[in-house]
């Protein structure tokens, strides 16, 4: 339906009031807005002064705030008596001030009353104590369960993922208790934008976790046998989400107890200097060439040269340090053994063929202290017995 057109006004009679409201002969002035002795009403369609109520419209009813508070307190059940009190106070206010919110107040009173009843029953039966104990146990369990990538240096953990591709059940435990591994440190893969593949990440982790582990557990004899380097690395999926962190660990073939940490935060200056001098010998020993001298004499001769350099560096380190009086004799004896070993390995590096290499090789091994200074280690307060009674561990 089309809207009706407003009717045209009847033109005023001749000589009647003219536009502008001015008086004409025999006429009346045009009426203005209606006013009263008090606060004037605003003309229809025009705003009035602040606080004025438009003519012909009833005032708006407000909602009682205590009624709202009562309902909220009754719903959350944290302070049930508060919701009950607020509701009881709100009802007479609502009636007196003609406000909205009666239904809210009644609902708040009912919910709060039920909460109070449950609270009394729970306290009387001891149910809340049991519920709190269960909640606390669950919270503690959740706090120990975490992603492998949330592990921090020095934490010991168990991993019950059972060979799954993703570590989904890693839990931190006290290092004194049996555990699967201990975190030695971490690093972030940088300079690579696209996912490089698992093999590339593993190569990076092998190369960078080795020195991290060596710095974390300098007293290598304190590392249990069959505990070695391991790590958690990003997956293709986590890489897409921005994960670049590799977590380096010491992990055992079976659970072990006790921390393997022996870094600068745990060692004395004398202990640290000794291990920094002797550990490179262990490292080189475990890098011996895979091929026999009969197959590659040059590779073996090169390895012997690296071992000779490590021995000479250890000799210098022992001579240059001022050792405590109780350990001087043991360290002096170790220094003499290393002097002899240096001469023998120097002869190995000077061999021209594999026969001469084999002949001098055995004599050089006999001159190198098998325990690499067990008496000196004990005198300095370090672990004096290799793991499982075997030789030094790398």
Structural class: alpha+beta
Principal-axis shape equals elongated
Note poorly predicted spans.
1-10, 12-46, 50-56, 138-146, 389-394
- What fraction of residues sit in β-strands? 5-15%
Distance linking N and C termini: 96 Å
Q: List how many beta strands DSSP finds.
A: 6
The number of helical runs is 11
The radius of gyration computed from the alpha-carbon positions, rounded to a whole number of angstroms, is: 44 Å
Largest sheet composition: 6 strands, antiparallel
Portion of residues within helices: 40-55%
- Strand sequence of the main sheet, in spatial order? 1-3-2-4-6-5
What is the residue-averaged pLDDT? 79
* Helix-strand topology string: HHHHEEEEHEHEHHHHH
What would the keywords be for this entry?
single chain; 394 residues; 6 strands; elongated; disordered N terminus; disordered C terminus
Account of the protein in words:
The longest helix has 24 residues, at 102-125. This protein has 394 residues and is an alpha+beta fold. Strands 1-3-2-4-6-5 form a 6-stranded antiparallel sheet. The protein has 11 helices and 6 strands. The protein has helices at residues 65-76, 80-97, 102-125, 127-144, 198-216, 236-240, 269-285, 297-320, 328-349, 354-367, 374-379, and strands at 145-146, 156-159, 170-173, 179-188, 227-232, 245-256. The protein starts with 64 loop residues before the first helix and ends in a 15-residue tail after the last helix.
């Amino acid at each position: 339906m089309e809207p009706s057109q407003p009717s045209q006004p009847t033109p005023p009679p001749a000589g009647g009031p003219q536009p502008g409201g001015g008086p004409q002969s025999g006429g009346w002035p045009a009426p203005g807005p209606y006013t009263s002795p008090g606060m004037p009403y605003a003309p229809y369609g025009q705003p009035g002064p602040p606080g004025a109520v438009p003519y012909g419209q009833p005032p708006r009813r407000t909602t009682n705030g205590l009624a709202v508070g009562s309902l909220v307190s009754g719903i959350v059940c944290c302070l049930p008596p508060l919701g009950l009190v607020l509701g009881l106070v709100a009802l007479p206010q609502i009636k007196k001030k003609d406000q909205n919110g009666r239904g809210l107040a009644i609902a708040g009173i009912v919910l709060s009353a039920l909460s109070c009843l449950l609270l009394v029953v729970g306290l009387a039966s001891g149910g809340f104590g049991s519920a709190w104990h269960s909640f606390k146990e669950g919270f503690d369990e959740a706090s120990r369960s975490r992603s492998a990538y949330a592990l921090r240096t020095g934490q010991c953990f168990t991993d019950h993922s059972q060979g799954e591709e993703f570590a989904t059940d890693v839990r931190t435990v006290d290092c004194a208790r049996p555990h699967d591994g201990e975190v030695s440190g971490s690093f972030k893969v940088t300079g690579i934008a696209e996912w490089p593949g698992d093999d590339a990440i593993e190569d990076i982790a092998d190369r960078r976790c080795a020195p991290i582990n060596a710095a974390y557990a300098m007293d290598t004899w304190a590392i249990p046998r069959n505990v070695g380097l391991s790590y958690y690395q990003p997956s293709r999926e986590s890489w897409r989400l921005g994960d670049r962190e590799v977590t380096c660990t010491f992990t055992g073939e079976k659970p072990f107890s006790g921390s393997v940490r022996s870094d600068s935060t745990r060692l004395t200056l004398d202990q640290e200097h000794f291990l920094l001098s002797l550990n490179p010998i262990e490292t080189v020993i475990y890098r011996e060439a895979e091929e026999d001298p009969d197959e590659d004499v040059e590779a073996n001769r090169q390895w012997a040269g690296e071992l000779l350099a490590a021995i000479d560096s250890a000799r210098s380190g022992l001579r240059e340090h001022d050792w405590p009086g109780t350990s001087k004799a043991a360290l002096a004896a170790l220094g003499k053994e290393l002097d002899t070993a240096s001469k023998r390995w120097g002869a190995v590096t000077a061999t021209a063929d594999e026969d001469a290499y084999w002949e001098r090789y055995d004599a050089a091994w006999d001159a190198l202290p098998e325990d690499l200074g067990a008496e000196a280690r004990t005198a300095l307060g370090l672990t004096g017995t290799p793991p499982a009674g075997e030789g030094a561990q790398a």
